[in-house]
Every structure is written in C-alpha cells, then in structure tokens.
Amino acid sequence: MNTKNLLFLIAIIMLSFSFSACGEYGKVDQGRVIAFENDKVTVIEDKNMEPKNPDYSILPPHTYTMPTDPNERGANPKAGLRLKIDVDKKYIKIFNTQTQAIEDLPIEIVDVQKSIGGDHPLVAGKEFPVVDKEKRQVTIYSPRQKMLSTFTVPEEYIDWPEYTWEAGDEVRIYWKEKGVSLRFMNITKTDIFKR
Questions:
Q1: Which residues make Cβ contacts (< 8 Å) with residue 149, sequence separation at least 6?
Q2: Domains in the chain, CATH or no CATH each
Q3: Which of 80, 9, 18, 16 is closest to 44 using CA atoms?
Q4: Is the pTM of this model over 0.70?
Q5: Which of 41, 114, 133, 190 has its CA 20 to 30 Å from the CA of residue 30?
Q6: Residue 97 pLDDT greater than 90, yes or no
Q7: Paired residues of 28 in beta bridges
C-alpha cells in the first residue's frame, strides 16, 4: 500500500472516530463540484470512492449548504463540468447543465503529453483550459493524470462556457440532514503532507 493510500485510509478512520463521538452517525459524500455559488455547493458523487479510479456518475447531483462554522469548512471549491477524459478511448465525459445528464462526447486527439507534473514548464503558472474556437480545439491539464492534452470537440459544444472543460474540485461532505453540510473538505486543495 503506497503512502497516499495509507494516509487516505488513516484520514477515513480518523473521520469515523470523530463522527462516532458525536452520537448519532452522519454520512459522508464524496464527489466532483459542478457548481458553487451563494454558499451552496453542487456535487456529482463518486460511485467508486477509490482515489485512483473515481467514477463520478451518481445522479441527480446533490446540493449542500456550506457549514456556517469556519472551522468546519475547507477552501472554497472550483466548479467544472468535466468528469473524465480518456485519450485512449477518445472521449470526454461532461455534465450537461441543460439536460441534467452526463454525456460522453467523442473527441479527436491533437496532442497528448504524459508524465507532466505541475512544475513542468508546459503547465507551471499557466491557466487551463485553453479554448481555440476557430480550430474547435481545447487544451486541458489534468494534475491527477499528469497529462496535458489538446483535442477537438463536436462543433455544437465549442461555444459552451470554458468551465465545461475543467474538472471541478473533489470534495468530501459530512452531513446528517441531506442538503446541509456539517463538515466540508476540499480534497483537491488540501495538502495532507503539509505540516
């Protein structure tokens, strides 16, 4: 078991113990943020709950109010509609806000570079996605996959908002009453190795 998986397991166990001390057990949802405004966060939950193999596919999306106690609230999340990109199978999975459905869009790969860490000159200090409407091309960087990719999308999607191509932050929400977050953790923006 690698260090990240061990730390993830320890964090879950610690959360379980702290929640059990509260008396009535609550529940924990984990997923990708597709909307964040007015202190409400909307999430598509992860069906697998496996850090290396997430499956953001539980519909309908769930909306939660953020905790009122600042000590129970992590960093504000970034929203995005991209749930997955698979350059080998040539598709991108997005949440369509108009239909409230998850769609697999076919893409044509223009360029893919793998093993690109966040400090690599191709991505360090740069903003993604980059959308070129004339060429119908989108360039995204996936920190989890350490992959920089450029692809074309179907013509009817190129004018969609740029956050369509972004992956929203992954978050963990503890709740007892559905829709009311008691604890909020932004996994994407939380450095568990920082002391």
A1: 85, 87, 109, 111, 112, 113, 139, 140, 142
A2: 3-79+168-186 (2.40.50), 85-158 (no CATH)
A3: 80
A4: yes
A5: 114
A6: yes
A7: 174
Distance in angstroms (rounded) separating the CA atoms of residues 122 and 187 = 24
DSSP string, 6-67: HHHHHHHHHHHHHHHTTSS--EEEEEEEEEEETTEEEEEEESS--TTS--EEEEEEEEEEPP
Residue bearing tokens 């939950």: 45
The number of CA neighbours under 13 Å toward the Cβ of 60 is 7
Tell me phi and psi for residue 129, to 5 degrees: -80, 160
Q: Which amino acid is at 158?
A: I
Q: Helix, strand, coil shares of the chain as percentages rounded to 5?
A: 15, 45, 45
- Residue pointed to by tokens 């995204």: 140
CA distance 147 to 134: 24
Beta-bridge mates of residue 29? 173
Query: Is it true that the peptide bond before 121 is cis, omega within 30 degrees of 0?
Result: no
User: Scanning the structure block, which residue is given the tokens 């450029």?
Assistant: 150
